[in-house]
Amino acid sequence: MPKNKVLPIEEAMSHIKSGMSIAIGGFIGQGDPLTLIDYLKTMDVSDLTIYENDAGFGQRGTVELVNQGKVKKIVASHVGTTPDIAKAMNEGRLVVEATPQGTLAEMLRCGGAGLGGFLTPTGIGTIAEEGKQVVEVDGKPYILVPAVRCDIALVRSHRGDTWGNLIYRGTSRNFNGPAAMCADYVIAEVENLYTMGELDPEAIHTSGIFVDAVVRANVSYCTVREAPLESATRSK
User: Fold this and answer.
1) Residue 66, burial from CB neighbour count under 10 angstroms (0-12, 13-18, 19+)
2) Where is 105: in which H helix or E strand?
3) CB 233 within 8 A of CB 207
4) How far is it, in rounded angstroms, from Cα 145 to Cα 166?
5) CA angle, corner 96, sides to 93 and 100, nearest 5?
6) How many of the other CB atoms lie within 10 Å of CB of 181?
7) What total of structural domains would you count in the chain?
8) Range of the domain at 196
9) Which residue in 67, 82, 88, 93 sits closest to 26, CA to CA?
10) Which residues are CB-neighbours of 132 under 8 A, at least 6 positions away?
11) How many angstroms separate the CA atoms of 17 and 50, rounded?
C-alpha cells in the first residue's frame, strides 16, 4: 500500500536546519512554494545556501528570507526582479553566484540522476569560465560543471496526490522538476490534492519516488482552485 505522505507543515519543515543547502522551485514568480517559504520565515535557521532560478518576484519569495538574514548565498540565473537582492549583495550581506539558466537546471537534474556533472559550451570565453575546468572534445572546448545535491528541496505543484506524484502548471515546470530530483529530503506544497490513483499516470511530471512530504498549499496562493477532493471522484 503506497504511503500517505501528507504531513502537517511544521512536521515537514522540521527537517530544515541552519547551514543547509536548499533547492527551491519556481520561475519568475510562477510556481514559487510560497506556503513553505512563509513557514520558513518563522523558523530559527540561518546560513542557508539557496539554488533557484531567481530570488522571487518583487518582495515575495526567497528575497524575504534574505531580508531576514537567513540566507548566506544564492546560486541563481536572474535576480533582477528583486531589487533587495542587489542591495544585500552590495552591502556584503549576501553572496550571489550567477549561473546560466540551462546550466543551473542541468546541475540540479544531474544531481538527481546520480551523475557527477556534465559538459557545456555555454559560458566559454566569458566570466562563467573563470575557475572552471575546460575539457576539449573533438576540438571544441566545454566547461565541466559539477552536479548539485542539496539537503532540502521546496517545490510547488498545481496537482498532486497523497503519495507525492506531482503535476506542474505552465512555466513553473521549468525548475520545480529539477529541484525535486536533487535533494535528500523533498517537500512539495500542492494546490489541488488527490488520492493515489486519481491522477493520470501519463501526466505526472515528478514521480512520488522523489517526494518525502506533501503539504497543502495556502488557498490564497492557488492559481486555479478545483473542487474539493471530498465532493467528487475525479475522472481518470
Assistant:
1) buried
2) helix 101-113
3) no
4) 28
5) 170
6) 22
7) 1
8) 18-218
9) 82
10) 123, 143, 144, 145
11) 13
Give residue for cell 544531474: 110
- 137 located within any domain: yes
Instruction: Provide block-wise average pLDDT over 10 residues at a time, the chain (236 residues).
Output: 87 98 93 96 97 92 96 94 92 94 96 96 91 95 97 97 96 94 97 94 96 91 62 36
Specify the DSSP element, H or E, that contains 160: strand 150-161
Residue 179 within any structural domain of the chain: yes
- What SS3 class is residue 106? helix
What CATH code is carried by the domain that includes residue 64? 3.40.1080.10
d(CA 60, CA 167): 23
Return mean pLDDT, the chain.
91
Domain assignment of residue 42, yes or no: yes
Instruction: Tell whether 10 is covered by a domain.
Output: no
Provide the residue type at 94 as one letter: L
- 112 within 8 A of 182, measured Cβ to Cβ: yes
For 52, the grid coordinates are 533557484
Long-range contacts of 57-60 (CB under 8 A, 24+ apart): 57/28, 57/29, 57/32, 57/81, 57/82, 58/29, 58/82, 59/84, 60/29, 60/32, 60/34
Bridge partners, residue 133, by sequence = 144
